[in-house]
Each structure stands twice: as C-alpha cells, then as structure tokens.
Amino acid sequence: MRKRRIAFAFALLVSLACHTAAQEAEVGVSVPVTITAGALETHRMQGDDPQAGTIAAAFHVTLYPTLKLGPHWFVYSALSLRSTPFYYYDAYHADRNVNFDTLQAFVGYTRTYKSASLLVKAGQLTSAFGYFPLHYDDADNPLLDQPLSYETLLRLRPDQLPCGVENLLEQHEYGVNVNFECGGSTAESYGLMPATVYGMPGIEIDLSVHKADARFQLTNSSPVNPQTLLSGSQHPQWTAGGGYTLAPGLRIGASAFQGPFLDRAVAGLLPPGTSIRNFPATGAGLDVQWARGRWSTSGEWQWFRFDYPNFSASPAASFAYAEVKAVLNARTYLALRAGFQRNSRVQDAVLQSPGAFSPDRQSYELAIGYRPNRWQLVKVGYEWLKTAEVSGTRDNIVGIQLVTSIHSLSKALR
What we know:
Blueprint: H1 2-17, E1 28-30, E2 33-41, H2 45-48, E3 55-63, E4 66-68, E5 73-83, E6 98-113, E7 116-126, H3 165-169, E8 199-209, E9 212-219, E10 237-247, E11 250-260, E12 280-292, E13 295-306, E14 311-313, E15 316-327, E16 332-343, E17 347-348, E18 361-370, E19 376-387, E20 397-406, E21 410-412
Antiparallel strand pairs: 1-4, 1-21, 2-3, 2-20, 3-5, 4-5, 5-6, 6-7, 7-8, 8-9, 9-10, 10-11, 11-12, 12-13, 13-15, 14-17, 15-16, 16-18, 18-19, 19-20
C-alpha cells in the first residue's frame, strides 16, 4: 500500500509538471512544488545500531495542489513525501524508510467585508495550535531542523498506562522503546510528539479584523495523538488561537487545546466510573514575530500536561525556542535557533519523583543560507544538543540541504 501511494505521488508530480504557466484565472489549477535533497553526519544512528554509518542522505518533496473554483471557493492540499533520516530526530533510528503524509487537503470558502476577512476550511487540516506549522516548507524554514516541540518524542504513550512514578522514571532514555507495565497495546512505540505538524480531519474558522486575527478548530482527535477517520480512538477536540499586530512587523499570538488523548486500547483499564474523557491532554502556547530591515525574529513558548490515572501530579513539559535571521546580502543569510525542553516532577499516591520524569534538553542550531538563483536555496548547518544522558559532541549534527522551489506549474481553466 505504501509503495502504491508513493508511486501515485510521483505520478501526480510528473503529470502536473506538464501544465504550462498561466495568468491569474477565475477557475484554474496550480501546483507549487518544493524539492529538497539533503545529507547529515552524526553518531546518533549508532545508538540504535552500533554498525550503522555516520552519514545519511535523504530527500523531501512537498506538493501544494490547489484548485480555484471561483472568487470564493477553492480546494487546497499539501502532500509530503520524504525519506528518513531527513529531520534530525529521525537520526536516532538507523532504519531507512520513505513516508507519505497528507499535511492538508481541504475545501475552503473565503469572503472579505471591508476590513474583515473570513475563511472557512473543512477536510484534512494542520493543527491550529502553534506557529511553526505554518512554516513547515523547507524553503520557508531558514534552518534545517524543526523546533524541539515539533520533533521531540516525549517518553509517554497514549496506548499504554504507566503504573506510577517508578514505571514512568524507568523510561528515561530517549530513542528507545517506551514500555509501560499496567496494560494497553503490545506494539512498539518511541513516545508521542506534543505538537504535530501533520494534518487531522476537522473544520476551522479563521477571522481577521484590522490588526487582530482569530481561529477556532474542531478536529476528530488531539494534536498530540492524531487519528484518521477510520480509527476507533477518535474524540472531538477543540483548538483555538489568535494574534494581534502591535506595529508593522510585530505580532504576538496565543493558542490552546484540550481534550482526550488516550487510545481505546486502555479504555478497559481505567478506574471504575471513569472514561478516556476524564484524562485529557492540555496545551497552551505563546508566540511572537518581529521583522525590520535585514533582521527577523520569531519564538514560541509551549506548555503541555498529560493526565493519567494513578497520578496526583501528572507529567507535564514546557518547550521554548527563539529564532533570529540576519540577511547579509541579496543572496546570503545567517540564522540561529536556540531551544529548551523542561520536564516536570510527577507524583502518585505514595511517591514523588526526586526530579523531572525525563531528562531536560537544550538545542542550538546555526545555519547559513545561500541563493544561487531565485529558485534554489543551499543551507548548511550545525546543531548542538545538550542532555544529561549524552556528553560531548556525539549527538551533534552537521547537515546540508539543496532546496528547489517551482512555482510555475499552473493552468487556467476559465
């Protein structure tokens, strides 16, 4: 099935490339494409397989097929095809895979009323939580990696129950299987991602008035445990966010979500009189963006809590990052991102953890970008990762990417 989907994605890319560029039309189709070839060097893969090499090459293709149906209606999608390890967290596993993901695929309706604009979307949607998912494209991301909360797997599972503090503390090592002992799924899992960049079925309303913007999203599952429409672990979930532009180039925003995150595999193991709805995941975040002249900055702070039975103080984690980009000249820029992850203490009926339930981490990434022409971008970067588990430079990464953007695949139908 995976091979057929991959073949279909490449066939779609080839067939749409045959369309010629067209002027803006009332009805038409366009397919911008971003193609990235990359390579990285690190010892992370040897933690999974001591015989693995330290160099890996990968690719990433993102297509954005869009159908304009008139002045108000349109269909938009974002399709991702990538090999692993492409992003840096992938490198903790020596396996080589090719993954196809539908980031977005929705029908949209837009309307403008003087200084107000309305957008309604229904289909596969990127989560309304957080800021970075809007800049997932490799051509838009000035660095090579993603912020910690969008790539780090927390040492938690939605499909197994931890027995208590001791069982949770046993899962301290990143990059290995998480195994809770009080029941649930028997499948392997390396943890859950607190903020996904991938899509979920749902509906969303976006509203912009003057300098303010707001969004409300209702999805079939939690951003920390996305489900398909065929899953038995679906639970309605709300996510809301908004922002305000204080001055030209300066915007502040916030977002939040709350709802069930546990899988049906643990439903029969919960305390009598409770259900999965009694144990939600909660997320809250703040974000800021500022740009002036050759300088631009952005950053986020996020907090997550995961309610489990048997805990009086459930596991929680906070993440933050700040990103700075300086344009050196018309072709070259320098970018830096600094981030951290802080995990909470936990407590059950008899024991409180002496420290965080999982090691804290810090990451620093530096990259230089060069544009040989208006379609291509070369990025070279280095990332430092600091944890209590690994000392020295073993988990550090050197990476390079060649990003090619094609915007002229379009055809007017009317």
